[in-house]
Amino acid sequence: MINSLVSIIIPVYNRAHLIAETLDSILLQTYSNWECIIVDDGSTDDTIDVLRSYCEKDIRFQYYKRPEDKVKGANACRNHGVEMSKGDYINFFDSDDLMISNKIKIKLTTLLEKKTDYVISKTIDFNHPNSSETFSETSTNYNFKTYPLNHYNYVCQQLNWLTPDALMASKLVKQIRFNEKLLRGQEYNFYTKLTLLSENGCFLNEFLTKRRMHNHSIKNQFTQTEIDIHAVKLRMITLTEIYKKTSKEVKCWFIANIARNITRVSMFLSPKEEALLIIDLYKFFGFRSLFYYLTSRKLKIIFGRNEFMRLRLKKSLR
Fold it and tell me: Which of 1, 44, 75, 252 is the most exposed place for a label (fewest CB within 10 A)?
C-alpha cells in the first residue's frame, strides 16, 4: 500500500483570481497523503484571504510568507517551501496551473514500481491566447522515445520538461536549490543540477498537468533581445555551478553554446549593455576570455561568422 507523504510546493504572487482553481485541482487528487505548501511572494491583492480560507478548509494546505531576508521571486519561495516540507517526495507546481485528478497517484506509483529517484510526466497548454511555443500532444519538447534520460541530453536540451513535471525524492531536492537570481530559465538550471546528481529517473508518457497561458505569464514580459541575453548568462551561471562535478563533454557543450551566442547577441547591444555582458564573461571565465571575446567580435564583424572564441575557450578547459 502506497502511503508516502508528497509535498506539493507552490510559489504565489497576486493570484487571487486563479489560485482557487489550482487548489481545487489538488483537492481532487485521488491520492490523499499530500501536503500543499504555498509560499506567498508579497501579494497585494486578496491572495492571502483565499489561501487562509483553504487552510481553514483542509489542514493539508499550509501557507507561508516569503521570509524578508530572502530575495523576492518564485525561486526563493520554492526554496523556502522545500525548507518547510516534510514529504518523502516533492512536486513543484505553479499557482495558475491545474493538476489532472490522478497526477500524484500515477507518478508516485510509477516511481516506486521502477525504483527511481524521480519521474517526469508531461504538460499540455490550455487557455492559450497568442503564443506559438505550446506544449501539446504534437510537441517536440518531450523527446522521451528518442533520447535516454541522462545529464548530457538534458543539458543539450535533447530532452526538455517543465517545472511541475517532476516528482522527486526529497533527499535529492534538498541537496540542490533553485538559483534565486534567475528570472527566466530557472527550471533548466535546477534540472541540470538534478540530472548531474542522479540519472536514475524515468519518463511517463502522460499529460498530467494543464498549463494556463495568458498575457501576464513571465515569458511575455521580456523582449527577444532580453531573452537572448539572459540565455547566455543562464549558461554561464549554470556552468559555474556544476563545473567541478560535470564531465568535460558537458563543459565543451556549454563553452560552444556560450561562445556561439555571445558574439551574436553582442551585435544588438548598446555599449553599456555590452559592457555589462563583458563583466559577466570576465567573472565566469577570467581575463583571457576578454581577449577571446574581443577578437571573436572583430572577426564576426569582418567575416560574418567565426569559430575563434569557441575553440580558444574549449582549449582552455581545465
Answer: 1
